[in-house]
Amino acid sequence: MSEENRKKAKGLLDKGHTAYNEENYQKAIGFYTEAIAINPNYDDAFYWRANVHYALKNYREALPDYSRAIELNPNNEQAYYYRALSNYYLEAYPETLPDFDKAIELNPDVASMYNWRGEVNYRQKQYEEAIFDYSKSIELNKMMDTPSMAGPIVIICLRSIKKPALITPKQLNFYLSRGLNTSIGVASAITI
User: Which among 48, 109, 129, 139 is least surrounded, fewest beta carbons within 10 Å?
Assistant: First the structure.
């Protein structure tokens, strides 16, 4: 590919970003598609065109572009993450897990990745795996001093497999302050 075409494709990608940020999604798709026409191996253009479809909730249309972005750049953890979320919203839960696993392998410090994988495991009644993921999400959020809503789900999972919930007093106060005790039984949890 010539340097001129590379610059032209990059310029179109930048125009696509501007349109995307202005929520002019159809225009953004056009710019990303033009960039791909110039450079059919432009992983960023595929990734961002997929993001437009995702933003429009066109999850089925996003999947092939995320897949192509991953094929061209297998280290793009966000492409794995959003392909997993696209499959999640299509209720294709088994397809989500390998992508969440890979995204977490590439970047193990993102709480939301564990939280979403926990959600998938919970929906598939894989409670032990869900507990691990939700607990890891809570741990990572704690390190960032960010409240996590994964805690109530951990308790639901624990109740589903008939184990007592082990939470810290700080977590218990957090859940109680939000009135979650009546809906999920936090008040009966064992604090550590």
Answer: 109
Report the C-alpha gap between 146 and 166 in whole angstroms: 19
The CA distance from 39 to 92, in Å, is 31
Would you say residue 125 lies in a domain? Answer: no
The sign one gets for the Cα dihedral 161, 111, 50, 76 is negative
- Please indicate, yes or no, if residue 143 is contained in any of the structural domains: no
Which contacts (CB < 8 Å, 24+ apart) does range 175-178 have? 175/151
Q: Which domain holds residue 36?
A: 1-84
State pLDDT tens for residues 126-177.
988 888 888 888 888 775 544 445 544 554 555 555 544 455 555 545 544 4
Residue 29 lies in a domain: yes
Q: 108: which residues sit within 8 A by CB, 6+ positions away?
A: none
Task: Reduce the DSSP state of residue 75 to 3 states and report it.
Answer: coil
Burial class (CB in 10 A: 0-12, 13-18, 19+), 132: middle
- Structural domains of the chain, count: 1
Helix, strand, coil abundance in the chain, percent, nearest 5: 75, 0, 25
Q: What is the pTM of this model?
A: 0.77
Question: What letter does residue 42 receive in the DSSP assignment?
Answer: -
Kindly state whether residue 71 falls inside one of the protein's structural domains. Answer: yes
Q: What is the pLDDT of residues 93-113, one digit of tens each?
A: 999 999 999 999 999 999 999
